[in-house]
Protein 1
Amino acid sequence: MDNGHYNSARGSLIVLEGLDRSGKTSQCSNLLSYLRGTGLSVEAWRFPDRSTSIGQLISAYLANESQLDDKAIHLLFSANRWEKRALMENKLKSGITIVVDRYSYSGVAFSVAKGLDMGWCMALEMGLIAPDLVIFLDIPPEKAAERGGYGTERYEQLEFQRKVAKHYHTLCDASWEVVDGSLPMEAIQKQLRDLSMHCVMKCQQGKPLMNLWSSKEDCPHCN
Ligand code: FDM
Ligand code: MG
């Protein structure tokens, strides 16, 4: 803390993960309004953050406008999180809660589905800020595919999403909150609100900010 303006209570890092068309994006914006309504300072972030120059390279790749080696694009996704790390830490320490649509787990699950090594993928994420809450919106890939169909972006294909789902389930540990993404919208909203409020309270009560996968024990898949 380098000035006297920080609130004593820090913000929480809340991450939503799930397949494409699992409902993450609408749930994130609903959660944002709810949390704001309780008087909290909250921001909604998403990864990839397409607004930066790295994000624009990622966006072109996803739109099939460029071709990149699988490791090269993986490194860009990871760099896109690293370039926001300091800002994220400052916001959290200044009392702002951040709701993030996708984080390192997407980075790992999608790249491992393409054949990259899980330990290699995870190692690049070590030292980013650890989420205080990871909510996994769990939905069968077939059901996600039915929801108005996929767009035209790379990865929005049933066969591929099946593989991603498998790797999400490998990453999912006891610290994750799994919410059934097939439930009615309102039921999901309620669970997300309750989980988030509980998390915010714990952070306000002094739960320390941690780094992601900071030790080998935290990262069983790291080499
Ligand atoms: N994606 C997202 C990755 O492959 N790696 C990552 O690190 C992240 C954050 O990018 F198919 C994939 C997941 C998705 C695509 O994401 C674009 P959005 O949420 O649809 O913008
Ligand atoms: Mg998408």
Protein 2
Amino acid sequence: MDITPLTAHLAAEVHGIDLSRPVPDAIRVGLAEAFARYGVLAIRGQTLQASQMLEAVQIFGPVFRQHNTRFALPDCPEIHYISNQDSFPDGRRYIPGEGWHTDHSNDTRPPKATVLHAITLPDHGGDTQFANMTLAYETLPAATRERIDGLFGIHVYQSSHSTRKLMNLPDTARERVPNAVLHPMVRTHPDTGRKAIYINPIRIEGILGLDHREALPLLDTLLEHSTQEALQYRHRWLPGDLVIWDNRRLLHKANGDYDMAQTRYLYRVMLQGDVPA
Ligand code: SIN
């Protein structure tokens, strides 16, 4: 197994392993260490059925039950699909993952990681961008760090302030998705001990104890600072990529910047996280 960093602060690519076959213990340990170190791993050259992906990702931890079951694969429902070929009920095309976010932060124990496996890619575009929220926290002015330490974000399925609209939850899924949860706006990573900003533009409805007139500009400032180019890694997908990233210290976003006559289709699975603290 070869592991090569992709930027100075985030992400590495992994060559020389085949996740469709049993993975030896030493490789499992190496992958888990690399994930803790780099935050994003692009494991190249995989050809996995959904069930093989499901088994392989458990190297990194147990599977999280995703919320919107309308995207579940019928024969392997823990795996959902990401596709540019779905539409909202009013006919507009639905591009999953556009706009900066972290996955399922409206859960009491949001997923620690998300994994995508490229099945069909457009010829150009459709990159996924990542923002390093640990560095974002560490490079904030001290006064801003002090201001947000101890604040709690109110996370819901769909923030009324977000311009990005999500597909509605089916009734069966709605029952098990909390109406609103509170999470610290600064969380400490359980493996590295480093603090990271934890916000989510599509799901944060407000900040506990702050008026919207104060909360919304603060969230905008944090987002602008966090997503500056110097804090990003931009993943250009290659056929066969399996990419795992750490939701506890990253924001990410998809790009709908490609020819929509072409299909972009990936498998997605998430891994169980802890209560953010
Ligand atoms: C997601 O936000 O989970 C999907 C990201 C992507 O499609 O690149």
